[in-house]
Amino acid sequence: MLNIAVIGAGRIGHVHARTIAGHPKASLALVCDPVGDAAEQLAAPYGARAAKDAEEAFADPKVDAVIVGSPTPLHIPHLVAAAKAGKAVLCEKPIALDMADVEAAQTDLDAISTPVMFGFNRRFDPSFAAVRAAVQEGRIGALEQLTIISRDPAAPPVEYIKVSGGIFRDMTIHDFDTARFFLGDIVELHAVGQNLDPAIKETGDFDAAVVTLKAASGAVATIINNRHCASGYDQRLEASGRNGALFAENIRGTTVRLSNAEVTDAQEPYLDFFLERYADAYRLELSAFIEAVEAGTTPPTGIADAVEALRLAEAATTSARTGEVIRLAS
Ligand SMILES: NC(=O)c1ccc[n+]([C@@H]2O[C@H](COP(=O)([O-])OP(=O)(O)OC[C@H]3O[C@@H](n4cnc5c(N)ncnc54)[C@H](O)[C@@H]3O)[C@@H](O)[C@H]2O)c1
C-alpha cells in the first residue's frame, strides 16, 4: 500500500484524489493547497488529512509518494523538494512553462534518485495503448502516418489561458508525448496556429492548431487541436502503416443508437471531459507508478519524456509565430 499526498486541490488534484481512493494499492494520506479550504474540502470525504503548505507532505515520514498537481510554475520546485525528501513523485505535465526553467534546475533534476513519473495519462488509455501495442507487434507493417485528434468541448476561462503557457505547452503537450510514444525521436516540426476565438486571440495565444512532426524513421504525425468542439470532447487516433491501419474512436457512455423520423443512428455524446474520458487511463497510470515504485524499476514516463515534450511545445510555439519549419537535433 502506497501512502500518497496530493499537492494542489484543483481540477487534476480532484482526479488524482478520486483515483487514489479507488485504487486497491493506494491510500490518500494528505492533500495540500494554500488557497481557502480547498485542501480540506478535497481531503475530508476520503478521510485524508489536509494542509496549507506542501512542505507538510515532504516532511511527513508516513507519506511514501507525492502527486504534484499544483500550477505548472510550481512543478519543478515541488518535484525537487519531494524527491529531496525521499518521496517517489508522479508529476503533472508540463514539467515547466519554459525550457529555461528546466535548464536552471538541471543540477537539482540530475540529482534526483527517487522514482519520478510524469502524468502523460494518454499513454495508458486502453484504446491508444492497444493501437500502439498492435503497431509494435507489426500488425500494420511499418508505421507511416499517425493522426492525433484532440479537441476540447469548450475553452477554459481566459484567466487560465493567460497563465497556461499557450496551447502548445498546455494542450498539445499530451499529443507531442503520444507522437513520441509511437514514433520515437522527432526531427522536424511545423505548426500552424489559428485564432478562431477573439477573446483568446487577445491573450496572444492560439485556440486551435495543426502540427506536423517528422520522425527520424521518416514517419509523419499530424496533430489536430481545438479548444472547442460543438460535439464534445473529441479524442481520436489513427495509425496508418504499410500493411494496414488502426483506429481508436471516441467513447460514449453506452452503445445505444436512436433512429426515428428525423434521424438515424443517433448516438449519445462523447464522454466529457478528461475526468470521464480518461478515467481508466488515470487509474492505469497510477497502477504503473505504484508498480514501478514497489518493484524499484524506472517508471514508464520520466523527466526526459517531459523535457522532450516541452521542447516540442516550444518549437511549435516558434513555428506557429514565424511560419518556420523547425529542425530538431535527433
Ligand atoms: N494530465 C492531465 O490530464 C491534466 C489535466 C488538467 C490539468 N493538468 C495539469 O495539472 C496542473 C494543475 O492544473 P489544474 O487544471 O488542476 O489547475 P487548478 O487551477 O484547477 O488547480 C491548481 C491548484 O493548485 C493550488 N496551488 C497553488 N499554489 C499551490 C501551492 N504552493 N501548493 C499546493 N497547491 C497550490 C491552487 O490553489 C489550485 O487549487 C497544471 O500543470 C495542468 O497542466 C493535467
UniProtKB/TrEMBL annotation:
State a single Pfam family of this protein.
GFO_IDH_MocA_C3
Query: What name does this protein carry?
Result: Oxidoreductase family, C-terminal alpha/beta domain
Q: What class of enzyme is it?
A: oxidoreductase
Which molecular function terms from Gene Ontology are attached?
Answer: nucleotide binding; oxidoreductase activity
Q: Which UniProt keywords apply?
A: Oxidoreductase
- Species name for this entry? Propionibacterium ruminifibrarum
Q: Where is the Gfo/Idh/MocA-like oxidoreductase N-terminal domain?
A: 2-109
Q: Which family does it belong to?
A: Belongs to the Gfo/Idh/MocA family.
Statement: the UniProt record of this protein carries the keyword Magnesium = no
Enzyme Commission code(s) on record: 1.-.-.-
Residues in domain GFO/IDH/MocA-like oxidoreductase? Answer: 128-246
